[in-house]
Each structure stands twice: as C-alpha cells, then as structure tokens.
Amino acid sequence: MAAAVLTVTAFATVLPACLFHAELLEALGAWRQLSCRPRRIPAWMPPALASFGAFCLASALLFPRFAFPLIWFAPVGLEALNYRSGAPSLLRDFQEGNRRRLARLLLGGLWAGGVWELFNSWARCKWIYAVPGFGRFKIFEMPLAGFLGFPVLTIGAFCFFSAVSRIGHWPVWRRRVVLTAAVLFCVAIYPELQRQTVRSLRPLLSELPSLDAPARARLAAVGVETPERLARAACREGIQSLSERTAISADRLRRVRDESVLALHKGMGAPRALLLEASGIGDIGQLAREDPDALWRRLVELASRLEQELPRLPEVRVWVSAAQRLPADLPRR
What we know:
Structural class: mainly alpha
Shape: elongated
Number of domains: 2
Distance between the termini: 29 Å
Radius of gyration: 25 Å
Order of helices and strands: HHHHHHEEHHHHHHHHHH
Helix content: 55-70%
C-alpha cells in the first residue's frame, strides 16, 4: 500500500512539472510571435488520432516486452476528445495557425527532463535505465536518446490534462463511470507494473548478513545507520578508526563496507548484492573485471538454484559498465 501511495505521489508531481516549464516559458514570453497560416483539419484526423492512442495503449499492455515505448504515445489519442469537446487542443491550435503552445511544450518537456534527471542522479533510490541498446552515452542516469522522450511525455500530459479539465461539465453518472473504470484499471495493472519496472532498491543495514543486531546498535550509536553512511564513514575516516569507535572488528567492517557498496551500486539492492557475493564477487573491483554476459549466465543459474528473482541481462551490463568507470580503489555507488 505504501508503495502505491508513493507511486501516485511521484506521478502526481512529475506530470504537472512537465507542464510547469512550458507555462514558465510562456510567462517569459518565449515564441510570443510564433504563428503560421491557419490550416483545415481533415475530418479523418481526430478519429485517426483516437485509434492511434488506443493501439499504443493496447500494444503496450499486451506486449510490454517489445511495445513498452508506445505507452508514452497513448495519451495523444485524447486529442480527438479535446478537439471535439472544446477543451484546449493542439489540433485546434494547428487549425488556427498557432504554434506557440506546441513549441513551448516541446522545449518545456526537454527542460523538465534535464531537471528531473539531475535530481534523480542525486537520489538515494533512483531510476536506473537499463534499456537494451542504449547503455552508453548517458547524461546523469538517462541515455542521451532517452531525453527525446520527455517532450513526448509533456505532449501526453497536456492532452490528458485537457481531457480531464472537461470532466466537470459531464453528467454525474458519466463522471462516476469514468472514475470507477480508471481506478479499476490502475488496480489491475499496478502489480505487474511494479514487477516489471521496480528494480532500484533501497538497501538496509539489517539486510547485510555480516552485521548482527548488537553490531548495528553500535554503529547507530556513532551515527552510522544506513549503508550509505557506513560507506562514507569508512572512506572518510578509514576502517581502523571506525573499528576503534564501534568495537567492531576491522575485518567485519571491511566485509560490511564491501557489501554496502555493492548493494548501493546502481540501485541493485541487498538481495542481488548478496547474489553477486555468492557467485564469488565481493567488491566493485571484482565486478569491474567481469564479462557481463558470462556473469549474467552465472547469476541466473545461481538464482534459479536459490529460488531467487532472476537478474536481467541489461541491468547486469549496467552494473559492470558503471563499475568499470569507477576508480579501482574508491568504493562508491
């Protein structure tokens, strides 16, 4: 339940943020004079957009492994409803020769994406993008080509917001039907959405096998309550100094430090860090020397024997490539 609340809160923040940057550009006067010759909207275009949106939604739900990018285009189908109902509409803008809104939405979406990914790169639990074929040339955590998706997301957010803004004019019975259908749809797809997309995990000290409860209590007494703080403290003051302050042996702290750094590395979390450890990889330096495809095959075989969740090849490639970019003597995530 808590995860569902956090998911709703996250998207309730992100979608308005996409529109905020477009509104800010308008307030700054961007493209105030941008216009072109009005054009007639063909009668076939609104139903064609509605069909395209329905196709994108159905494809993404039925074939998520291959058609998942189409979900970003699905809200464009609402433009047909917006155009017919009198809600703010890009089609109507096009008909009237107005290109200002479209230009602001596209640039505002790109701007929002840059801000979003900047904050994401600093977050403790973050989006880690492991899209096949897009593992190189990243800005922050996002593949360079992925930033092109933010303008599309912003267009979709505008279409959705425009459609929702007209709900207040609908009869009460229709509003109730639409709201009920939307809630049931979200409840139905949420478990699969979590299973397919949530791969970045927040590790806890209690998940690390090298620490028992008394040792965790001694670490907490000196302000080391999370794996991040443990990794930073070990790097800042050294294992020996931390051992003297906590009365925990240096060897044990070294093991816990390595487990913490692995668990924090690209959001893999403690279970998969321990899976790496069980396969013979105890630190970032060893991970950096691995061939990702061979490592993935070993991890899949080991996870199958231990009845654990199987890692995916794209995320294993992200782990290895990120480890190779880190200094060999500096444990970092």
